[in-house]
Amino acid sequence: MKVSVKAIILIFSLTSVYSFHISNELIKRKESNSTIPEAPNNSTVPTNSTVVHSQNDAFFKICSFKGGEEVCEEIYEDETNGGSTCTKAIQKECPLDMNYNEDNINVYCSSYFNADKCKKIYSEGFNTLPECNGKNQKYLEILYENNIKKYTHTSIICMKDNDGKVCPYTSYNFLRKYGQVDDSSFWRYMKESCKSKSCMDVIPLMLENEAHRFKNDELQLLTEAINFFKTNECTALTSDTIIKYKYNFSNIIGCLFAIISLYILL
C-alpha cells in the first residue's frame, strides 16, 4: 500500500481527532435542495465546486511549490459522501497513542494496543475493515504513510516477555529518551532481555526499522548486544533454557528416587 507522496510540505492542522484540515478553508457540506455556498475569500476550494465538505470530514491537505507559488490539494477520505468513518475505524482497531510513558505502558500495550489486529490492517491493508471499503484509495495511502512509522515504533515498544510484561528494551528506551542511561544500565537491560527470546528479538527488529533514532555509539552497543545474545552467558538466562534445566533436573531426581526405592525393596 506504500506510496510516495510528491509534496514539499505536508500540513496537518487538527481541529478534531480525525480531521486534518484548516478550519477557515472549509465550507459546509451542501444540504438537500440547497444551493452551493460561496467559499471564503481565502479558501482553496473553488466556488463552482460540486463537492462541498463539512468540518467532520477527514482529509489531508498537501501543499507543494510550483513555479514559486504554493499549490495545495485536499485529499478526502470520501470525495463524494464525506465523513470520517474509515479513519475512526482504523484508530479504534489500532490506536496509536504516542502519549504513553513508563508508568502506563503496560496498561496501554495490554488494554489498547492489540498487536494481532494492528498487524492485520497494516500488513493486509485498511480495506480489510468494512468501514474503509470504497473509500478514496489515495487518502488511504497517505494515511498509511502517515501512520506506519508510529505503528512500527509502538509494536516494538509493546513487545512482551514470557510473563506478558513489556520487554526491558522499553524501559531502556524511556530512560534513553530522558538522558538517564549509561553503558552499565544498558547492559543490565540487555541481560534482562536474555530471559525471553521475544525480548532478544526486539533489538535486531529495532535496528532494522528504527536505526535512524540512534547515535553511532548507541548503534555499536546494540550491535554488540545482538552478539551477546548468542553467548552461553545469555542463553543460560533464557526462560526456556531454565525450564529445560529444571525439567531435566527433576527427571534425574525422580530416577534416583526410583533406584533408591527399588534398592530398599530388594
Automatic annotation (TrEMBL):
Residues 1-19 form the signal peptide. Keywords: Membrane, Signal, Transmembrane, Transmembrane helix. The chain crosses the membrane at residues 247-265. It comes from the Eukaryota. This is Uncharacterized protein. It comes from Neocallimastix californiae.
